[in-house]
Amino acid sequence: MKKKKIAFFVKQGLDNFLKDIIEGLRDQYEVKKIIVLDYKQINEEMSSADICWFEWCDELIGYASKLKMASFKKIIVRLHSYEAFTGYIYDVKWENVNKIIFVSEHLRDIVLNKVKNLDKLKTEIISNGIDLEKFKYADRGSGFNVAYVGYINFKKGPMLLMHAFKAIADIDSRYKLYIAGEFQEERYVLYFNQMISEMGLQNRVIYSGWQKNLDSWLNDKNYILCTSLLESQNVSVMQAMSKGIKPLIHNFVGAKTIYPKKYVWSSIDECTKMVKDKEYNSREYRSYIENGFSRNTEKDKILKLFNQLLIEEDSSKNISDYLKKVNLKGGNKFKDIKTLTLITKRNLHEAKINTENTIIANEGDIILPYMDEFNENTLNYLNKDYVMVAPRYVFNLNDKNQIFNYYDRNFYKDAPAAYVLKTFFTTGEMSCMNLGSIYRTKEILNNSTNEAFEGALDYIMLSRVFSKALNKKVKITEEYAYFRKVKQIEKDKRSILLQLISLTVSGYYCVKNNIVSFKDAKQTILDRGKLVEKINGCGYEYSKLIVKCLSKEISEEDFIKEVLKENIAELPSEFSKLRKFL
Protein backbone atom coordinates (compact mmCIF):
# COMPACT_ATOMS: atom_id res chain seq x y z
CA MET A 1 0.00 0.00 0.00
CA LYS A 2 1.41 3.36 -1.02
CA LYS A 3 2.36 5.61 1.89
CA LYS A 4 0.59 8.94 2.34
CA LYS A 5 2.81 11.95 1.71
CA ILE A 6 3.47 14.55 4.42
CA ALA A 7 5.17 17.80 3.35
CA PHE A 8 6.80 19.97 6.04
CA PHE A 9 7.31 23.63 5.05
CA VAL A 10 9.78 25.73 7.03
CA LYS A 11 12.14 28.66 6.56
CA GLN A 12 15.89 28.14 6.59
CA GLY A 13 17.36 27.80 10.08
CA LEU A 14 13.99 27.30 11.80
CA ASP A 15 13.67 23.52 11.56
CA ASN A 16 15.19 22.61 14.95
CA PHE A 17 11.88 21.37 16.37
CA LEU A 18 11.14 19.30 13.26
CA LYS A 19 14.14 16.98 13.00
CA ASP A 20 13.07 14.34 15.51
CA ILE A 21 9.40 14.52 14.47
CA ILE A 22 10.25 13.81 10.84
CA GLU A 23 12.49 10.88 11.73
CA GLY A 24 9.74 9.40 13.90
CA LEU A 25 7.23 9.47 11.03
CA ARG A 26 9.29 7.92 8.23
CA ASP A 27 8.14 4.36 8.98
CA GLN A 28 4.49 5.20 8.35
CA TYR A 29 4.55 8.08 5.89
CA GLU A 30 6.48 9.40 2.94
CA VAL A 31 7.97 12.50 4.53
CA LYS A 32 9.59 15.49 2.87
CA LYS A 33 10.99 18.65 4.46
CA ILE A 34 10.94 21.72 2.23
CA ILE A 35 13.27 24.57 3.20
CA VAL A 36 11.38 27.37 1.48
CA LEU A 37 13.55 29.89 -0.35
CA ASP A 38 10.96 30.72 -3.01
CA TYR A 39 7.15 30.65 -2.85
CA LYS A 40 7.14 28.52 -6.01
CA GLN A 41 8.31 25.61 -3.84
CA ILE A 42 5.06 25.84 -1.87
CA ASN A 43 2.94 25.65 -5.02
CA GLU A 44 4.85 22.65 -6.33
CA GLU A 45 5.03 20.59 -3.13
CA MET A 46 1.51 21.31 -1.85
CA SER A 47 -0.04 19.95 -5.02
CA SER A 48 1.28 16.42 -4.43
CA ALA A 49 1.07 16.24 -0.61
CA ASP A 50 -1.70 14.53 1.35
CA ILE A 51 -1.00 16.66 4.43
CA CYS A 52 0.83 20.01 4.41
CA TRP A 53 2.50 20.99 7.70
CA PHE A 54 3.65 24.58 8.15
CA GLU A 55 6.18 24.95 10.93
CA TRP A 56 5.69 28.39 12.52
CA CYS A 57 2.76 30.68 11.79
CA ASP A 58 4.65 33.04 9.51
CA GLU A 59 4.51 34.41 5.96
CA LEU A 60 4.72 30.89 4.49
CA ILE A 61 1.28 29.86 5.73
CA GLY A 62 0.00 33.38 5.02
CA TYR A 63 0.83 32.78 1.37
CA ALA A 64 -0.17 29.10 1.20
CA SER A 65 -3.58 29.57 2.85
CA LYS A 66 -4.63 31.95 0.07
CA LEU A 67 -3.82 29.57 -2.78
CA LYS A 68 -6.80 28.10 -4.63
CA MET A 69 -5.72 24.54 -3.78
CA ALA A 70 -5.69 25.38 -0.04
CA SER A 71 -9.48 25.03 0.06
CA PHE A 72 -9.24 21.27 -0.56
CA LYS A 73 -5.82 20.43 0.90
CA LYS A 74 -5.27 19.12 4.44
CA ILE A 75 -3.25 21.88 6.15
CA ILE A 76 -1.70 21.95 9.62
CA VAL A 77 -0.01 24.98 11.17
CA ARG A 78 2.16 24.75 14.28
CA LEU A 79 2.40 28.01 16.24
CA HIS A 80 5.18 28.18 18.81
CA SER A 81 5.30 31.46 20.70
CA TYR A 82 6.62 34.63 19.08
CA GLU A 83 4.06 34.47 16.25
CA ALA A 84 1.26 35.17 18.74
CA PHE A 85 2.59 38.72 19.06
CA THR A 86 3.02 39.48 15.36
CA GLY A 87 0.77 40.43 12.47
CA TYR A 88 1.18 36.98 10.92
CA ILE A 89 -1.81 35.58 12.82
CA TYR A 90 -4.10 38.08 11.04
CA ASP A 91 -2.71 37.31 7.59
CA VAL A 92 -3.78 33.65 7.43
CA LYS A 93 -6.96 32.55 5.69
CA TRP A 94 -7.96 30.37 8.62
CA GLU A 95 -10.97 28.78 6.93
CA ASN A 96 -8.51 26.91 4.70
CA VAL A 97 -6.51 25.53 7.65
CA ASN A 98 -7.67 22.19 9.10
CA LYS A 99 -5.71 22.14 12.35
CA ILE A 100 -3.66 24.64 14.35
CA ILE A 101 -1.22 23.07 16.80
CA PHE A 102 -0.28 25.14 19.84
CA VAL A 103 2.51 23.97 22.11
CA SER A 104 0.73 25.30 25.19
CA GLU A 105 -2.75 26.18 26.34
CA HIS A 106 -2.04 29.77 27.36
CA LEU A 107 -0.72 30.62 23.89
CA ARG A 108 -3.87 29.19 22.35
CA ASP A 109 -5.96 31.41 24.62
CA ILE A 110 -3.92 34.48 23.66
CA VAL A 111 -4.36 33.84 19.92
CA LEU A 112 -8.05 32.92 20.15
CA ASN A 113 -8.66 36.15 22.04
CA LYS A 114 -7.06 38.11 19.20
CA VAL A 115 -8.25 36.24 16.10
CA LYS A 116 -12.02 36.11 16.39
CA ASN A 117 -12.59 34.05 13.24
CA LEU A 118 -10.35 31.21 14.41
CA ASP A 119 -12.46 28.18 15.39
CA LYS A 120 -11.33 26.67 18.70
CA LEU A 121 -12.44 23.24 17.47
CA LYS A 122 -9.64 23.40 14.91
CA THR A 123 -6.99 23.76 17.61
CA GLU A 124 -4.87 21.07 19.25
CA ILE A 125 -2.43 21.26 22.16
CA ILE A 126 0.69 19.20 21.42
CA SER A 127 3.73 20.13 23.49
CA ASN A 128 7.26 19.81 22.18
CA GLY A 129 8.46 16.34 23.12
CA ILE A 130 11.68 15.66 25.02
CA ASP A 131 13.87 12.84 23.74
CA LEU A 132 14.42 11.01 27.02
CA GLU A 133 17.08 8.76 25.52
CA LYS A 134 19.31 11.77 24.86
CA PHE A 135 19.14 13.02 28.44
CA LYS A 136 20.50 10.50 30.92
CA TYR A 137 18.80 10.42 34.30
CA ALA A 138 20.68 10.35 37.61
CA ASP A 139 19.61 10.77 41.23
CA ARG A 140 20.91 14.11 42.46
CA GLY A 141 20.76 16.38 45.45
CA SER A 142 21.34 19.96 46.52
CA GLY A 143 24.59 21.45 45.26
CA PHE A 144 26.07 24.74 44.14
CA ASN A 145 25.92 24.69 40.34
CA VAL A 146 23.06 26.67 38.77
CA ALA A 147 22.44 26.29 35.01
CA TYR A 148 20.88 28.70 32.55
CA VAL A 149 20.28 27.56 28.96
CA GLY A 150 19.24 29.82 26.08
CA TYR A 151 19.71 33.18 24.47
CA ILE A 152 20.15 36.24 26.64
CA ASN A 153 17.58 38.66 25.28
CA PHE A 154 14.63 40.73 26.50
CA LYS A 155 12.22 37.73 26.42
CA LYS A 156 14.43 35.74 28.78
CA GLY A 157 14.45 38.37 31.54
CA PRO A 158 18.22 39.10 31.67
CA MET A 159 17.99 41.65 34.49
CA LEU A 160 15.92 39.28 36.61
CA LEU A 161 18.46 36.54 35.87
CA MET A 162 21.27 38.61 37.37
CA HIS A 163 19.29 39.72 40.42
CA ALA A 164 17.91 36.23 41.10
CA PHE A 165 21.37 34.70 40.94
CA LYS A 166 22.80 37.47 43.16
CA ALA A 167 20.23 36.49 45.83
CA ILE A 168 21.21 32.82 45.46
CA ALA A 169 24.92 33.70 45.62
CA ASP A 170 24.34 35.57 48.88
CA ILE A 171 23.18 32.30 50.49
CA ASP A 172 26.60 30.72 50.06
CA SER A 173 29.77 31.86 48.32
CA ARG A 174 30.08 28.49 46.57
CA TYR A 175 27.11 29.02 44.22
CA LYS A 176 28.02 29.56 40.57
CA LEU A 177 25.91 30.37 37.50
CA TYR A 178 26.76 28.51 34.28
CA ILE A 179 25.32 29.95 31.06
CA ALA A 180 24.93 27.79 27.94
CA GLY A 181 23.86 30.22 25.24
CA GLU A 182 24.79 33.62 23.91
CA PHE A 183 23.91 37.31 24.01
CA GLN A 184 21.67 38.55 21.22
CA GLU A 185 22.45 42.23 21.75
CA GLU A 186 25.55 44.11 22.83
CA ARG A 187 23.62 46.10 25.45
CA TYR A 188 23.17 42.90 27.51
CA VAL A 189 26.91 42.20 27.38
CA LEU A 190 27.54 45.69 28.77
CA TYR A 191 24.88 45.27 31.45
CA PHE A 192 26.13 41.85 32.59
CA ASN A 193 29.74 43.06 32.75
CA GLN A 194 28.72 46.04 34.83
CA MET A 195 26.45 44.13 37.23
CA ILE A 196 28.89 41.26 37.73
CA SER A 197 31.43 43.84 38.84
CA GLU A 198 28.97 45.82 40.99
CA MET A 199 27.57 42.67 42.64
CA GLY A 200 30.97 41.12 43.26
CA LEU A 201 30.20 38.05 41.16
CA GLN A 202 33.53 37.81 39.35
CA ASN A 203 34.47 34.17 38.72
CA ARG A 204 30.95 33.09 39.73
CA VAL A 205 29.24 33.61 36.36
CA ILE A 206 30.70 31.27 33.74
CA TYR A 207 29.88 31.57 30.03
CA SER A 208 29.98 28.19 28.30
CA GLY A 209 28.39 29.15 24.95
CA TRP A 210 26.07 26.90 22.94
CA GLN A 211 26.56 23.23 23.70
CA LYS A 212 26.67 20.48 21.09
CA ASN A 213 26.18 17.97 23.90
CA LEU A 214 23.83 19.61 26.39
CA ASP A 215 23.30 16.30 28.19
CA SER A 216 26.99 16.11 29.09
CA TRP A 217 27.19 19.80 30.05
CA LEU A 218 24.27 19.42 32.47
CA ASN A 219 25.80 16.43 34.28
CA ASP A 220 27.28 18.40 37.19
CA LYS A 221 24.43 20.92 37.52
CA ASN A 222 22.06 20.96 40.48
CA TYR A 223 19.48 23.56 39.42
CA ILE A 224 18.05 24.89 36.15
CA LEU A 225 17.05 28.57 36.39
CA CYS A 226 14.44 30.23 34.15
CA THR A 227 13.68 33.98 34.38
CA SER A 228 11.59 34.42 31.21
CA LEU A 229 8.65 36.78 30.72
CA LEU A 230 6.71 34.32 28.56
CA GLU A 231 7.45 30.86 27.18
CA SER A 232 5.53 28.26 25.22
CA GLN A 233 6.99 25.67 27.62
CA ASN A 234 10.79 26.18 27.82
CA VAL A 235 12.30 23.03 26.39
CA SER A 236 15.68 23.50 28.10
CA VAL A 237 14.05 23.41 31.54
CA MET A 238 12.32 20.15 30.62
CA GLN A 239 15.54 18.67 29.27
CA ALA A 240 17.23 19.42 32.59
CA MET A 241 14.30 18.02 34.57
CA SER A 242 14.51 14.80 32.56
CA LYS A 243 18.06 14.43 33.94
CA GLY A 244 16.72 14.81 37.49
CA ILE A 245 17.75 18.46 37.94
CA LYS A 246 15.61 20.68 40.17
CA PRO A 247 13.80 23.49 38.29
CA LEU A 248 13.63 27.11 39.50
CA ILE A 249 11.02 28.62 37.17
CA HIS A 250 10.00 32.27 37.21
CA ASN A 251 6.22 32.73 37.03
CA PHE A 252 6.22 33.64 33.34
CA VAL A 253 2.90 34.02 31.54
CA GLY A 254 1.44 30.51 31.44
CA ALA A 255 4.03 28.88 33.74
CA LYS A 256 1.49 27.45 36.18
CA THR A 257 -0.54 25.87 33.37
CA ILE A 258 2.55 23.88 32.36
CA TYR A 259 4.46 23.18 35.57
CA PRO A 260 3.38 22.24 39.11
CA LYS A 261 3.10 25.35 41.29
CA LYS A 262 5.85 24.16 43.61
CA TYR A 263 8.39 24.53 40.78
CA VAL A 264 7.36 28.16 40.13
CA TRP A 265 8.47 31.34 41.94
CA SER A 266 7.03 34.86 41.72
CA SER A 267 9.53 36.79 43.85
CA ILE A 268 13.26 36.53 44.38
CA ASP A 269 12.60 35.58 48.01
CA GLU A 270 10.54 32.62 46.81
CA CYS A 271 13.35 31.63 44.45
CA THR A 272 15.95 31.56 47.22
CA LYS A 273 13.59 29.60 49.49
CA MET A 274 13.33 26.93 46.77
CA VAL A 275 17.13 26.72 46.70
CA LYS A 276 17.40 26.47 50.49
CA ASP A 277 14.54 23.97 50.69
CA LYS A 278 15.95 20.51 51.43
CA GLU A 279 13.32 18.82 49.26
CA TYR A 280 15.06 17.54 46.14
CA ASN A 281 13.37 14.74 44.22
CA SER A 282 15.11 13.80 40.98
CA ARG A 283 12.73 10.93 40.23
CA GLU A 284 9.75 13.29 40.50
CA TYR A 285 11.27 15.78 38.04
CA ARG A 286 12.05 13.03 35.54
CA SER A 287 8.61 11.42 35.92
CA TYR A 288 6.85 14.71 35.26
CA ILE A 289 8.48 14.89 31.83
CA GLU A 290 8.02 11.16 31.14
CA ASN A 291 4.30 11.31 31.86
CA GLY A 292 3.37 14.32 29.76
CA PHE A 293 6.17 15.71 27.64
CA SER A 294 8.12 12.82 26.15
CA ARG A 295 8.95 12.55 22.47
CA ASN A 296 6.76 9.42 22.27
CA THR A 297 3.77 11.35 23.66
CA GLU A 298 4.28 14.05 21.05
CA LYS A 299 4.62 11.47 18.27
CA ASP A 300 1.45 9.60 19.33
CA LYS A 301 -0.59 12.81 19.31
CA ILE A 302 0.73 13.82 15.90
CA LEU A 303 -0.01 10.38 14.44
CA LYS A 304 -3.53 10.51 15.84
CA LEU A 305 -4.01 13.93 14.26
CA PHE A 306 -2.77 12.70 10.88
CA ASN A 307 -5.08 9.67 11.06
CA GLN A 308 -8.07 11.88 11.81
CA LEU A 309 -7.33 14.19 8.89
CA LEU A 310 -6.82 11.32 6.46
CA ILE A 311 -9.95 9.53 7.68
CA GLU A 312 -11.94 12.76 7.26
CA GLU A 313 -10.68 12.94 3.69
CA ASP A 314 -11.96 9.42 2.98
CA SER A 315 -15.18 10.14 4.85
CA SER A 316 -16.05 13.22 2.83
CA LYS A 317 -15.98 11.07 -0.30
CA ASN A 318 -17.97 8.23 1.27
CA ILE A 319 -20.68 10.45 2.73
CA SER A 320 -21.61 12.01 -0.60
CA ASP A 321 -22.19 8.47 -1.92
CA TYR A 322 -23.96 7.51 1.27
CA LEU A 323 -26.54 10.27 1.12
CA LYS A 324 -27.56 9.29 -2.39
CA LYS A 325 -28.81 5.98 -0.98
CA VAL A 326 -30.36 7.09 2.31
CA ASN A 327 -34.12 7.52 2.56
CA LEU A 328 -35.01 9.25 5.82
CA LYS A 329 -38.56 7.95 5.59
CA GLY A 330 -37.37 4.37 5.70
CA GLY A 331 -37.67 4.04 9.46
CA ASN A 332 -35.89 1.54 11.65
CA LYS A 333 -35.44 -1.51 9.45
CA PHE A 334 -33.87 -3.67 12.12
CA LYS A 335 -37.16 -4.85 13.55
CA ASP A 336 -37.13 -7.92 11.35
CA ILE A 337 -34.12 -9.44 13.07
CA LYS A 338 -33.96 -10.59 16.66
CA THR A 339 -32.75 -7.42 18.34
CA LEU A 340 -34.17 -5.02 20.85
CA THR A 341 -33.83 -1.25 20.86
CA LEU A 342 -33.33 0.27 24.29
CA ILE A 343 -34.15 3.94 24.77
CA THR A 344 -31.90 6.25 26.75
CA LYS A 345 -33.51 5.92 30.17
CA ARG A 346 -33.38 2.13 29.96
CA ASN A 347 -36.96 2.08 31.21
CA LEU A 348 -37.77 -1.28 29.69
CA HIS A 349 -38.09 -4.15 32.13
CA GLU A 350 -34.84 -6.05 31.84
CA ALA A 351 -36.57 -9.27 32.83
CA LYS A 352 -38.48 -9.21 29.55
CA ILE A 353 -35.38 -8.97 27.41
CA ASN A 354 -35.01 -12.34 25.75
CA THR A 355 -33.31 -11.46 22.47
CA GLU A 356 -29.81 -12.58 21.65
CA ASN A 357 -28.58 -9.16 20.53
CA THR A 358 -29.38 -5.61 21.57
CA ILE A 359 -29.08 -2.39 19.58
CA ILE A 360 -28.81 0.75 21.68
CA ALA A 361 -30.73 3.74 20.38
CA ASN A 362 -32.27 6.92 21.70
CA GLU A 363 -36.01 7.37 21.46
CA GLY A 364 -36.99 8.85 18.10
CA ASP A 365 -33.63 8.24 16.44
CA ILE A 366 -33.31 6.31 13.18
CA ILE A 367 -31.12 3.37 12.24
CA LEU A 368 -30.86 2.86 8.49
CA PRO A 369 -29.06 0.28 6.39
CA TYR A 370 -26.41 1.54 3.99
CA MET A 371 -26.76 -1.48 1.74
CA ASP A 372 -30.11 -2.59 0.36
CA GLU A 373 -30.36 -5.22 3.08
CA PHE A 374 -28.61 -5.48 6.39
CA ASN A 375 -26.19 -8.41 6.40
CA GLU A 376 -27.22 -10.56 9.33
CA ASN A 377 -23.84 -12.26 9.25
CA THR A 378 -22.47 -9.07 10.77
CA LEU A 379 -23.93 -10.23 14.06
CA ASN A 380 -21.69 -13.28 13.95
CA TYR A 381 -18.74 -11.02 14.72
CA LEU A 382 -20.06 -10.92 18.29
CA ASN A 383 -19.53 -14.66 18.52
CA LYS A 384 -15.91 -14.37 17.44
CA ASP A 385 -13.26 -11.81 18.30
CA TYR A 386 -15.42 -8.71 18.68
CA VAL A 387 -17.03 -7.16 21.74
CA MET A 388 -19.36 -4.85 19.80
CA VAL A 389 -20.49 -3.89 16.31
CA ALA A 390 -20.78 -0.14 15.75
CA PRO A 391 -21.86 1.88 12.72
CA ARG A 392 -19.06 3.98 11.31
CA TYR A 393 -21.20 7.12 11.14
CA VAL A 394 -23.49 8.88 13.59
CA PHE A 395 -25.17 11.75 11.72
CA ASN A 396 -26.58 14.76 13.57
CA LEU A 397 -29.75 16.24 12.06
CA ASN A 398 -31.14 19.74 12.55
CA ASP A 399 -34.84 20.60 12.83
CA LYS A 400 -35.17 20.33 9.04
CA ASN A 401 -33.69 16.82 9.02
CA GLN A 402 -30.54 18.13 7.37
CA ILE A 403 -27.16 16.67 8.31
CA PHE A 404 -25.04 19.42 9.85
CA ASN A 405 -22.20 17.33 11.32
CA TYR A 406 -21.33 13.75 12.16
CA TYR A 407 -19.08 11.38 14.11
CA ASP A 408 -16.78 9.08 12.18
CA ARG A 409 -15.65 6.18 14.41
CA ASN A 410 -13.37 4.57 11.83
CA PHE A 411 -10.49 5.56 14.08
CA TYR A 412 -11.56 2.63 16.29
CA LYS A 413 -11.72 0.10 13.44
CA ASP A 414 -10.50 -3.27 14.79
CA ALA A 415 -9.04 -1.49 17.83
CA PRO A 416 -8.58 -3.69 20.94
CA ALA A 417 -11.05 -2.98 23.72
CA ALA A 418 -8.11 -2.12 26.02
CA TYR A 419 -7.06 0.68 23.68
CA VAL A 420 -10.59 2.07 23.40
CA LEU A 421 -11.04 1.90 27.17
CA LYS A 422 -7.83 3.87 27.69
CA THR A 423 -8.93 6.45 25.11
CA PHE A 424 -12.31 6.85 26.81
CA PHE A 425 -10.58 7.49 30.12
CA THR A 426 -7.73 9.75 29.02
CA THR A 427 -9.96 11.93 26.80
CA GLY A 428 -13.25 11.65 28.70
CA GLU A 429 -14.93 11.31 25.29
CA MET A 430 -16.66 8.32 23.72
CA SER A 431 -17.73 9.67 20.28
CA CYS A 432 -21.34 8.58 20.95
CA MET A 433 -19.95 5.07 20.72
CA ASN A 434 -23.08 3.39 22.06
CA LEU A 435 -25.48 4.88 19.55
CA GLY A 436 -26.58 2.22 17.09
CA SER A 437 -24.08 -0.27 18.48
CA ILE A 438 -24.98 -3.95 18.78
CA TYR A 439 -24.05 -6.05 21.83
CA ARG A 440 -24.80 -9.46 23.15
CA THR A 441 -27.87 -8.82 25.27
CA LYS A 442 -26.30 -10.51 28.28
CA GLU A 443 -23.55 -7.88 28.21
CA ILE A 444 -26.18 -5.15 28.54
CA LEU A 445 -27.85 -6.95 31.44
CA ASN A 446 -24.62 -7.68 33.29
CA ASN A 447 -23.07 -4.23 32.96
CA SER A 448 -25.84 -1.64 32.88
CA THR A 449 -26.38 0.69 35.81
CA ASN A 450 -29.43 2.34 37.33
CA GLU A 451 -31.06 5.66 36.59
CA ALA A 452 -29.15 7.37 39.40
CA PHE A 453 -26.39 7.81 36.83
CA GLU A 454 -28.54 9.21 34.03
CA GLY A 455 -26.28 11.27 31.78
CA ALA A 456 -23.41 8.84 32.29
CA LEU A 457 -25.22 5.53 31.69
CA ASP A 458 -23.58 4.79 28.36
CA TYR A 459 -20.10 5.71 29.56
CA ILE A 460 -20.32 3.50 32.65
CA MET A 461 -21.87 0.56 30.82
CA LEU A 462 -19.37 0.68 27.97
CA SER A 463 -16.40 0.92 30.36
CA ARG A 464 -17.60 -2.21 32.14
CA VAL A 465 -18.23 -4.14 28.93
CA PHE A 466 -14.79 -3.34 27.53
CA SER A 467 -13.02 -4.11 30.81
CA LYS A 468 -14.24 -7.70 30.61
CA ALA A 469 -13.09 -8.19 27.02
CA LEU A 470 -9.78 -6.35 26.84
CA ASN A 471 -8.39 -8.53 24.06
CA LYS A 472 -11.50 -8.43 21.93
CA LYS A 473 -11.91 -5.79 19.23
CA VAL A 474 -14.40 -3.23 17.99
CA LYS A 475 -16.10 -3.99 14.69
CA ILE A 476 -16.80 -0.81 12.72
CA THR A 477 -19.25 -1.39 9.89
CA GLU A 478 -20.61 0.72 7.05
CA GLU A 479 -23.62 -1.55 6.53
CA TYR A 480 -25.85 0.84 8.44
CA ALA A 481 -25.80 4.34 9.90
CA TYR A 482 -27.35 6.13 12.83
CA PHE A 483 -29.29 9.39 12.52
CA ARG A 484 -30.30 11.58 15.45
CA LYS A 485 -31.76 14.99 16.07
CA VAL A 486 -29.56 17.08 18.31
CA LYS A 487 -30.60 19.88 20.62
CA GLN A 488 -28.09 22.03 22.46
CA ILE A 489 -28.50 21.25 26.15
CA GLU A 490 -26.74 23.41 28.70
CA LYS A 491 -25.03 21.22 31.26
CA ASP A 492 -25.86 21.85 34.91
CA LYS A 493 -23.51 21.27 37.84
CA ARG A 494 -25.05 17.89 38.60
CA SER A 495 -24.43 16.48 35.13
CA ILE A 496 -20.87 17.83 35.11
CA LEU A 497 -20.10 16.24 38.49
CA LEU A 498 -21.72 12.99 37.37
CA GLN A 499 -19.58 12.85 34.24
CA LEU A 500 -16.41 13.41 36.27
CA ILE A 501 -17.42 10.70 38.75
CA SER A 502 -18.08 8.33 35.83
CA LEU A 503 -14.43 8.80 34.81
CA THR A 504 -13.50 6.81 37.90
CA VAL A 505 -15.22 3.78 36.36
CA SER A 506 -13.02 3.66 33.25
CA GLY A 507 -10.13 4.84 35.44
CA TYR A 508 -10.56 1.90 37.80
CA TYR A 509 -10.44 -0.65 34.99
CA CYS A 510 -7.42 1.07 33.41
CA VAL A 511 -5.51 1.00 36.72
CA LYS A 512 -6.64 -2.53 37.56
CA ASN A 513 -5.35 -3.83 34.23
CA ASN A 514 -2.10 -1.81 34.30
CA ILE A 515 -3.17 0.32 31.35
CA VAL A 516 -2.44 3.52 33.30
CA SER A 517 -0.90 4.13 36.72
CA PHE A 518 -2.91 5.29 39.73
CA LYS A 519 -0.92 8.54 39.70
CA ASP A 520 -1.71 9.14 36.03
CA ALA A 521 -5.37 8.32 36.67
CA LYS A 522 -5.61 11.09 39.26
CA GLN A 523 -3.89 13.55 36.93
CA THR A 524 -6.26 12.62 34.09
CA ILE A 525 -9.28 13.40 36.28
CA LEU A 526 -7.76 16.77 37.23
CA ASP A 527 -6.98 17.61 33.60
CA ARG A 528 -10.50 16.69 32.53
CA GLY A 529 -11.90 18.93 35.25
CA LYS A 530 -9.82 21.86 33.97
CA LEU A 531 -11.08 21.34 30.42
CA VAL A 532 -14.71 21.01 31.51
CA GLU A 533 -14.34 24.20 33.55
CA LYS A 534 -13.13 26.12 30.50
CA ILE A 535 -16.09 24.93 28.45
CA ASN A 536 -18.88 25.04 31.04
CA GLY A 537 -17.63 27.37 33.77
CA CYS A 538 -17.28 24.70 36.45
CA GLY A 539 -15.73 21.28 36.95
CA TYR A 540 -12.19 21.75 38.24
CA GLU A 541 -13.24 22.01 41.89
CA TYR A 542 -15.22 18.79 41.47
CA SER A 543 -12.24 16.98 39.96
CA LYS A 544 -10.01 18.16 42.83
CA LEU A 545 -12.61 16.88 45.30
CA ILE A 546 -12.70 13.49 43.55
CA VAL A 547 -8.90 13.22 43.60
CA LYS A 548 -8.79 14.17 47.29
CA CYS A 549 -11.19 11.34 48.04
CA LEU A 550 -9.28 8.86 45.87
CA SER A 551 -6.07 9.90 47.67
CA LYS A 552 -7.83 9.43 51.02
CA GLU A 553 -7.27 13.05 52.00
CA ILE A 554 -10.98 13.09 52.77
CA SER A 555 -13.22 10.15 53.64
CA GLU A 556 -15.67 8.60 51.23
CA GLU A 557 -18.46 9.56 53.64
CA ASP A 558 -17.46 13.24 53.50
CA PHE A 559 -17.26 13.03 49.72
CA ILE A 560 -20.77 11.56 49.53
CA LYS A 561 -22.05 14.46 51.66
CA GLU A 562 -20.65 16.84 49.07
CA VAL A 563 -22.13 15.05 46.06
CA LEU A 564 -25.50 14.78 47.79
CA LYS A 565 -25.67 18.57 47.48
CA GLU A 566 -26.01 18.00 43.73
CA ASN A 567 -28.65 15.26 44.22
CA ILE A 568 -26.34 12.37 43.38
CA ALA A 569 -27.52 9.65 45.70
CA GLU A 570 -24.82 7.03 45.18
CA LEU A 571 -21.44 6.32 43.63
CA PRO A 572 -20.50 3.63 41.11
CA SER A 573 -18.99 0.61 42.87
CA GLU A 574 -15.75 1.19 40.95
CA PHE A 575 -15.18 4.47 42.81
CA SER A 576 -14.49 2.70 46.11
CA LYS A 577 -12.39 0.06 44.36
CA LEU A 578 -10.19 2.72 42.76
CA ARG A 579 -9.48 4.24 46.20
CA LYS A 580 -7.98 0.94 47.29
CA PHE A 581 -5.13 1.29 44.78
CA LEU A 582 -3.57 4.08 46.89
Automatic annotation (TrEMBL):
GO terms for molecular function: glycosyltransferase activity. Residues 134-255 form the Glycosyl transferase family domain. SUPFAM superfamilies: UDP-Glycosyltransferase/glycogen phosphorylase. Transmembrane segments: none annotated. This is TPR-repeat domain fused to glycosyltransferase. InterPro entries: Glyco_trans_1. Pfam families: Glycos_transf_1.
